[in-house]
User: Fold 5'-nucleotidase SurE from Sphingobacterium corticibacter.
Amino acid sequence: MATKKPLILVVNDDGITAPGIKVLLEEMQHLGEVVVVAPDGPQSGMGHAITIGKPLRLDAVDIYPKVEMYKCSGTPVDCVKLAVNKVFKGRKPDLCVSGINHGLNNSINVLYSGTMSAAVEGAIEGIPSIGFSLDDFSYDANFEYCRPYVRGIAAQVLKNDLPKHSLLNVNFPNVEKLKGIKICRQAGGRWVEEFEERVDPHQREYFWLTGKFQLEDRGEDTDVFALNNGYVSVVPTQFDMTAHHVIPELNSWSFDIPKS
Amino acid sequence: MATKKPLILVVNDDGITAPGIKVLLEEMQHLGEVVVVAPDGPQSGMGHAITIGKPLRLDAVDIYPKVEMYKCSGTPVDCVKLAVNKVFKGRKPDLCVSGINHGLNNSINVLYSGTMSAAVEGAIEGIPSIGFSLDDFSYDANFEYCRPYVRGIAAQVLKNDLPKHSLLNVNFPNVEKLKGIKICRQAGGRWVEEFEERVDPHQREYFWLTGKFQLEDRGEDTDVFALNNGYVSVVPTQFDMTAHHVIPELNSWSFDIPKS
Assistant:
């Protein structure tokens, strides 16, 4: 009896020609039937943005031999929505993988990341989903040593059931000798912004976002700690943003609503 | 002894000329010193997007009498970052309020919403933050009956300490007789997309995102339930996206990493 190959959606936020997505789709070809739907250009930092005020384009492209690929004019989340509704047309993928991102998406970066938001959208659609990211922003980042982990983690997700409404955020440190995998929580931290001030050729001031990540968490169970120690960090991630522990406190507040 | 008035940052995602932000800043003027930094145009559905690949503009504008206001070319989250770093320059606001959004940001919408993402960014910066939204997308939505609640809830947040790393997501049903406030959790649900297919004047196909919200949660402690029953929903919200309950399960998985 022939077993049907798993159907795997590959997406990213660095755009369809980024080297990271090539590594990801090659590894996924060992596990199943691959379909790529990715942005037609860079969409880093797009978070969970969707396109509602303008039209979206979706076009088949022929980049790598024997891979069904589509470029999309929208955000990473748009790519997942279009894949589910217009490419797969009712067939539901068995796995959604996003990346491999050029740059880390650990700690608070999960919120800003188009890569992770695409994986979150996959999970919202009920598809087991994983985001992969490497601590190297450069175009010629070396993804080679990530390959066995990418394939191994994806194979595990296909084999086991990820609990409902959860997905994985996987980050690779920029070291050649990976020590293994650590299951972690998202480290507390934030970006301390600097905004470079410049003047344009018309003498008008403009700003360019820049900044430094500031760790605000001394825990040894965090993704930042794992990465700093040479491990691949795996954070189970969810999209219920309720601060459940705060509900009892708020119920004790008295909201005096002034008469209008 | 004179008490210093609280410093209040007002932001939104519908743009600086939207009626909702006018109601919000007017109510905040009763509570403190108001500074508005808002997008120069509509930024709905921008989620937690930030602008990293192009410059940002920030310009003072004179729209309402005696209100310090700036329009920004970026996303709602950019507005908060620029406010904190370039407008307040070291002074830390006592409160960040976002909205009042034209349209609900309950349930899963918290992820797509620029209004809520601006409030989340405020909370990341350590500022007590609230997002407000009304169940009416129209330009001439009637925000009048929200006013006492907006002021009352903001006053409570200024008076009490919101627990660290949490903020409030406040939604108003579109009814004139509000029954009161319910503290809730985010309802489970998602958008079932439809994507209208059209053809442009050059005979090329394009897509337009549309869809229906599908509730997948029968709980009576959710924001959707509260709103459907005429209450103002208040969901304490956080930006730790770790699915903490999934960590033990993942620790029981064996990740067989194939030799590369």
About this structure: The helical segments of chain B are 19-29, 76-87, 109-112, 114-124, 147-159, 223-228, 247-251. The first helix of chain B runs from residue 19 to 29. DSSP finds seven helices and 13 strands in chain B. Chain B touches chain A through 89 residues (CB under 8 Å).
